[in-house]
Amino acid sequence: xxxxxxxxxxxKAAAFDLAAACTGFIYGLAVVDGLIRTGVAKNCLLxxxxxxxxxxNWEDRGTCIIFGDGAGAAVLVPTHGRHGLLSTHLYADGGxxxxxxxxxxxxxxxxxxxxxxxxxxCVHMKGNETFxxxxxxxxxxxxxxxxxxxxxxxxxxxxxxxxxxxRIIEATAQRLHVPMSRVFVNIDRYGNxxxxxxxxxxxxxxxxxxxxxxxxxxxxxFGAGFTWGSALIRW
Length: 235
Description:
Layout: H1 2-8, H2 24-37, E1 44-51, E2 69-76, E3 84-92, E4 100-101, H3 113-117, E5 124-125, H4 127-148, E6 156-161, H5 166-176, H6 187-190, H7 197-207, E7 216-223, E8 227-234
Parallel strand pairs: 6-7
Antiparallel strand pairs: 1-2, 3-8, 4-5, 7-8
Helix pairs in contact: 4-5
């Protein structure tokens, strides 16, 4: 973060990293929202970036064909009136972290020849179990955002979900009773870029005219850890 701050020439601006896997961008939105609302910061640059190709086991077709590298960003500033970030909702449960994780490389299993030979520094995922929890978590987070703002799923103009896989996206939309015509999907072009999926998708959606002024846009994500969360925006 500080290297990027230097390259941008943003001298004296605070800079830090935040890790929450695929939910990282929404966690970042919550942090930035708090900084702006309390007056600690005025203008914030929030970046979601991942280079997952560095932690792929290229012999594991259950993971290496799914994930990709990517980066997206958003500038957040104070706003007044009915527009802007309405609320964020964050959740985590470390009890089943072993279903989707990188076992080695940290303090519990430091890097070693044995750990590398066993591919412990790579992503390990139990897909079927993760799928069920992802749909449940994303549905819960989306429902929380709707309830907190007293709106219905029918009021959502655009759902921008984490691009984990198309089955999770479709199942989540179905449980929310949101038609796929109001769901933005680009996983077919980039794969799962973890914390970068939502900012990339949101940028493309805006460029395509999918979010008009005054419309409600719902962001929804689930990631390793496990972490999950949502954010509701009035564009």
